[in-house]
């Protein structure tokens, strides 16, 4: 089945999983202006937290290389894109991990049975606020007088590790440990 509709794709995956099938997607896109490039990699919007953290780890290698061999502007542009994806991963982690998938974007409804495992601590709010604020400082257009050099690859790795540590902390306090096991950068 071919679709450009992310909501429909989500529904297909949900229905396939509910029927006991393992959904599989291929992404077809343009490469160098030519259509037909197929990739088993799903669009960012469709990736879960574990897949996103894995992709961020892979991208960190390229980010570090750009810092060493690219221009300051190339590095800054790459950092902004990277931190935008990290910020979106924080949002997905709130939905998927903290709220245990009770409410999903594009989902059919509210999974009330999953509420039993939801616990939100003050430390969760502090971790989310710190993680998203660190990313937002670069994703949003800053005032020119406040413009500072972009974070180094090591600082970016620390930002990713803050997310990994937070998800791990939630995982450790849940009795079923149903959350993904993530590894630090």
Structure description:
- This protein has a two-stranded antiparallel ribbon.
- By secondary structure, the chain is mostly helical.
- The model has no long low-confidence stretch (mean pLDDT 88).
- It has helices spanning 6-18, 49-69, 72-98, 122-139, 153-173; strands at residues 27-31, 34-39.
- Helix 2 runs antiparallel to helix 5 (153-173), helix 3 (72-98) runs antiparallel to helix 4 (122-139) and helix 4 runs antiparallel to helix 5 (153-173).
- The longest helix has 27 residues, at 72-98.
- Helices cover 54% and strands 6% of the residues.
Topology:
Elements: H1 6-18, E1 27-31, E2 34-39, H2 49-69, H3 72-98, H4 122-139, H5 153-173
Shape: globular
Strand order of the largest sheet: 1-2
The profile of the biggest β sheet is: 2 strands, antiparallel
**Total strands:** 2
The secondary-structure element order is: HEEHHHH
Q: Tell me what portion of residues adopts beta-strand conformation.
A: 5-15%
How far apart are the termini? 36 Å
Radius of gyration: 18 Å
Low-pLDDT runs: none
What would the average pLDDT be, to the nearest integer?
88
Integer count of domains: 2
Helix/strand class: mainly alpha
Give the helix tally: 5
The percent of residues in helical segments reads: 40-55%
